[in-house]
Design brief:
Length: 334
């Protein structure tokens, strides 16, 4: 019997809110996610790793496994040329995913994004009890981020950069942190919107003064950084979701997305499917565009797609011309 395989081109996935546009590298090798159907592993293989490696060696002379996946999908990601990818697919045929969705307190919210800025007051753990004993998630040390940056609120912080670094080379640590540290702000914003502790006396340069808090201020947070200054790669996102599933978080927030894609090309949809079938609730961003037809993303039916239609305040600013005519506009700076 032939193993059945789906190849997912691990395309750049854009983080919302900030214009991540990674430069096109004209390298021959591209990153692919190879999905293997575990059920049809030929009996001569003793384990899956072995089977994956052999499949890869059958098309590539210098196979380089970026990740292997056990939870989110069965398979691996690797660097291949377009030709090798085609060959791999031809050799093994294809299969469709998404069969068998399972109809099946201390809440842990996982966030896959650009990491987290641990100094944020929204991560204050005052009043939190001990970290739940079942929690096995990791707080990983790295550039500008130490194990001591985790606390009873932020109970997990790790990062996934293999595909990013395979494409662009080693991370330049003078520009960005090879750790869960958020060098951008987007991840801290999404994480604390979901689960930020209550912070009194907050404002944005004097605007919107008041109390800031996330939707679930008592929930714990686990952060999985898969997005970098140059963008996010499907293989890294999938590896992050793999860890999310293994860590058994309750809710996963994903403000990452591509333009509307077929499910089979949509890494977030793949990962979310497996996470949902393990009982994880998933909320995804609807995108930053619209309101036009087909301007949203993350629309697969097993996730909750979230968008804001309007906000409850405005940010007025005025332009006064030489003739004293005054025009009202909108700005984040008065
Ligand atoms: C669905 O849930 C049941 C009970 O928890 C479990 O035995 C089964 O393996 C799950 N199926 C899938 C596809 O995850
Ligand atoms: C944490 O990571 C930083 C940066 O890679 C390193 O300099 C430091 O020695 C590490 N600390 C520990 C305790 O491993
Ligand atoms: C989705 O797949 C169909 C059939 O393969 C193809 O015709 C269509 O162009 C694809 N759409 C997108 C958005 O990729």
């Amino acid at each position: 019997m032939n193993p059945r395989i789906v190849l997912l081109m691990a395309v750049m996935v854009v983080v919302y809110q900030y214009p991540y546009t990674a430069a096109n590298t004209n390298q021959e090798l591209k990153t692919y996610i190879v999905h293997m159907d575990k059920e049809v592993m030929p009996p001569e293989y003793s384990d899956h790793q072995n089977w994956y490696a052999t499949s890869m060696e059958s098309v590539s002379e210098s196979p380089d496994m970026l990740y292997t996946y056990e939870n989110v999908i069965h398979g691996f990601s690797t660097r291949l040329t377009v030709e090798q990818a085609k060959l791999l697919k031809e050799k093994h045929g294809t299969e469709t995913m998404f069969s068998g969705l399972n109809s099946s307190s201390d809440v842990v919210i996982g966030v896959v994004d650009t990491g987290v800025w641990p100094a944020s007051k929204s991560l204050d753990d005052t009043g939190f009890g001990p970290v739940p004993s079942w929690w096995k998630g990791e707080c990983k040390n790295g550039t500008s981020f130490g194990v001591s940056n985790c606390n009873k609120k932020l109970i997990g912080a790790t990062y996934f950069s293999r595909a990013y670094e395979a494409t662009y080379g080693p991370i330049d640590e003078t520009i960005e942190s090879r750790s869960a540290m958020d060098d951008d702000g987007h991840g801290t914003h999404t994480a604390t919107t979901a689960a930020g502790s209550t912070v009194t006396g907050a404002s944005l340069f004097g605007f919107a003064k008041g109390t800031a808090r996330g939707m679930a201020p008592n929930a714990r947070l686990a952060v999985y950084k898969a997005c970098w200054l140059g963008g996010c790669f499907g293989s890294d996102i999938l590896a992050a979701i793999e860890k999310v599933i293994a860590d058994r978080v309750h809710v996963l927030s994903l403000s990452i997305g591509d333009s509307l894609a077929n499910y089979t090309n949509d890494v977030v949809a793949y990962g979310a499917f497996k996470a949902v079938s393990r009982g994880i609730f998933i909320a995804c961003s609807a995108g930053n565009s619209g309101p036009d037809p087909i301007s949203l993303s993350n629309v697969v039916p097993w996730i909750a797609t979230v968008g804001a239609g309007r906000i409850d305040r405005d940010f007025p600013a005025y332009v006064v011309l030489g003739n004293r005519k005054k025009f009202r506009g909108v700005s984040l700076y008065s």
